[in-house]
Design a protein that fits this description.
- There is one protein chain.
- With 425 residues, this protein is α/β, with parallel strands linked by helices.
- The chain contains 11 helices and 12 strands.
- A 9-stranded mixed β-sheet has the order 9-7-8-6-2-10-11-1-12. It has a 3-stranded antiparallel β-sheet with strand order 3-5-4.
- Strand 4 and strand 5 form a beta hairpin.
- The longest helix has 31 residues.
- It is globular.
- The chain starts with 7 loop residues before the first helix and ends with a helix.
- The relative contact order is 0.14.
């Protein structure tokens, strides 16, 4: 029977069945795409566009000698409250350094061992409602992916480093805490109502406290602050850095600048990677941003995996790290429908406003302009080469971006409507 001869009831049933089938197809978990990267220890370095947590779960254990991550700092003036309870570890049956999900060993009054248990974490008015829940599974994956002689460098600032220290003690064990590095710099505006905050914190953890790799012979040296107090030979050689590193930020007009926000100086990454890995070792950064980790790794003869989901980051790293043009054919740029999030200085009309196609075109134009600027101002890292891969988790990321874009449009239009009413009254 043809569709044109169906009764209204049969036609409605057929439409409902087809709609249910389409909904089931959309909700079904997609099989891994053919373009999903397969990590090969003997293969090339990788630039990966992905939801980093989903991608990390596909990587084999103990694959990386150095993992450096510079996650979002939770800078939106968070109002965060943590509450804990402590009970005897003996009664709980905990063992030191067990790395349980919600506990960390503490030695308390009269040498008794106590387990500090995370009770509640409430966070609001910020980019992440629960920073702990965002970061904790990624740190667990980093621990799994580190080789036995491997080292994690976790780059944060004063806002969350205290909570991250507790988290890493839980996951790695307190005996695997190696250092807290202080990166001190002196640039930018300074508060007059408190001591200006001009440093970042870098927590250093090792996978195994007995077998981690650390080679001071490969570390760049610093001049003595008082060279007259040491021999001429020592003054000429310089001293090993301490756990406080004075290093300028990326100069706004320097050759190293890529224009990507939160870019870190390559000198910091070179020091970490040189000290904690050997030539040919693998380095991982899953908040890769401008690709500084990949740049430092390549210059030192290490292989790298750099992961990010942001189209702007992918554009920057593809140019800086010499991603192969053939592999970049899998790159889609700005996801359709989410272009409003990538379109700078674009107003949205109240009555339907700028069309989706116009926003899409403007976003692609902005990325193209960024690409031209990168080609003019940023020199690709000599010796760097990598393959670009688009992980299947990017589909879910792009879907979420489209949802965010729709909400952004709604908020913007409501704001404009209110402004128009106030102007008319």
């Amino acid at each position: 029977m043809s569709a044109s001869h169906l009764s209204p009831t049969h036609h409605a049933d057929a439409q409902a069945t087809a709609k249910a089938a389409r909904a089931h197809a959309r909700s079904a978990s997609p099989a891994p795409a053919a373009t999903d990267p397969v990590f090969d220890p003997a293969g090339p370095s990788l630039l990966v566009q992905a939801d980093n947590l989903e991608y990390l779960r596909t990587l084999p254990d103990a694959s990386f000698t150095v993992i450096y991550i510079d996650p979002p700092f939770n800078t939106g003036k968070p109002q965060t409250r943590r509450s804990y309870s402590a009970r005897s570890a003996d009664a709980q049956g905990d063992s030191k350094g067990s790395g349980g999900q919600d506990s960390a060993q503490r030695t308390g009054f009269k040498g008794k061992s106590y387990s500090t248990v995370l009770q509640t974490i409430a966070s609001y008015s910020d980019s992440f409602e629960d920073y702990w829940a965002f970061l904790e599974p990624r740190i667990r994956e980093a621990h799994r992916l580190l080789a036995e002689d491997g080292t994690l460098y976790l780059h944060l600032d004063w806002r969350e480093v205290h909570y991250a220290k507790i988290m890493c003690d839980m996951i790695f064990g307190r005996d695997c805490f190696l250092n807290e590095l202080i990166w001190a710099y002196d640039y930018g505006a300074k508060s007059t109502r408190r001591w200006p905050t001009k440093h970042d914190n870098i927590l250093v953890y090792v996978k195994n406290s007995r077998s981690y790799y650390f080679n001071t012979a490969e570390v760049d040296r610093e001049p003595y602050m008082a060279p007259s107090l040491v021999t001429e030979e020592k003054a000429a050689r310089g001293k090993l850095p301490t756990d406080v590193w004075w290093h300028t930020i990326v100069s706004p007009t320097g050759k190293e600048k890529t224009g990507y926000p939160t870019q870190k100086p390559v000198g910091l990454l070179r020091r970490m990677i040189a000290a904690s890995s050997r030539p040919g070792d693998w380095v991982l950064d899953f908040f890769a941003g401008s690709g500084t980790t990949g740049a430092a790794a390549a210059s030192l003869g290490r292989k790298f995996v750099c992961v990010d989901q942001n189209p702007s980051a992918i554009e920057t790293m593809a140019h800086r790290l010499n991603a192969s043009e053939t592999s970049l054919q899998a790159y889609r740029g700005v996801p359709r429908g989410a272009s409003v999030l990538f379109t700078p200085h674009r107003s949205v009309g109240v009555r339907g406003g700028t069309s989706r196609d116009a926003l899409m075109a403007a976003s692609r134009k902005a990325l193209a302009a960024q690409r031209v600027k990168l080609q003019q101002q940023v020199q690709p890292v000599e010796g760097a080469a990598c393959e670009f891969v688009r992980h299947s988790s990017t589909d879910a990321v792009e879907k979420q971006l489209r949802v965010q874009a729709r909400e952004h449009l709604r908020r913007e239009r409501r704001r404009q409507e209110l402004a128009k009413k106030r102007a008319a009254s």
